[in-house]
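Raw record, unedited: Acrosin
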Amino acid sequence: MILLCALILLALCGPAHGACGQTCGLRPMGTTFSSSRVVGGTDVMPGSGAWAGIASVRCVWKPPVSVHVCGGTLISAKWLLTAAHCFVNNTNPIKEWAIVLGATSLGQSGPGVEVRRIKRLIIHEKYIPNLEYNDIALLELDRPVQCSSTIQTACLPGPAVKVSELKNCYIAGWGDRIVKCEDILQQAKVQVVSNQLCNSSEWLNGYIYDFHVCAGQGGVGTCQGDSGGPLVCQDKRAGFFWQIGVTSWGVGCARPKRPAVSSSTQYYYNWIQTTMRTRPVPAVTPAPAYTSTPLQPLPSRPTQPCPVPRTKLLQFFNLLKEILLYLKGKVF
């Protein structure tokens, strides 16, 4: 990857020399890349420095057992960006959750891997569960992270960045690996779809708003367990990448004309910056109650309640159904 000059890095991404966040948006993917989807996609090799900003958000069930719930991205030494719906209906206190950075395998540990607890959870004050409006959240870590070759921060596009002109967009996550009982981070190149097309009657038919970004379709996209993870696109004049989205929901996984929907980081840029600087909130911020009745049902979205992942339950019941059908064939 091409490194930015110091002036551009300081202006766009970070504080003084040596601080975590100085070199944001670097090396989001490996040198070899296929266009296969995250669902059964391309492995990210350990130690490659690829996707150095990504994190695994885990519910610690019965220590030392932890369950991957969602993805997230480091945006400063003490703050992680993720999706609000990852914490709906959680059963464990937020301080018992863990953030794992610097790993491409869910079982990876040792040099280059950092583990942090969550000091506080801040969910967007206008988040609406089920509809998934304003599906964005910030996690303050219990202590700062030391950036390295395997841990970097993401670059968030401010109002001046022309997101529509960005090219070469990618996603990453562990979602499909969880369903298949594997644990290697997956990566894929995706096509960003305009909100106008994404919102058309043959696509997502009115569910898309200004705070959304659509990407991936027909064999390329995110799945359960990828929520909260990054959608990044390359700056057209340099080698770094902007994180333009936080994976929120989707209708199935990578279906034709059913792209994954992310929360736009540019839309929430001011909220993110203001919240990190000034927000004096309690240690845990519960999701606000939604009292109105939705006018229409929401498409299914990837989510994984804690402590038992929903995908594991679905896998169990599908297997049970297959066994019953087999036994029925034997009897009759």
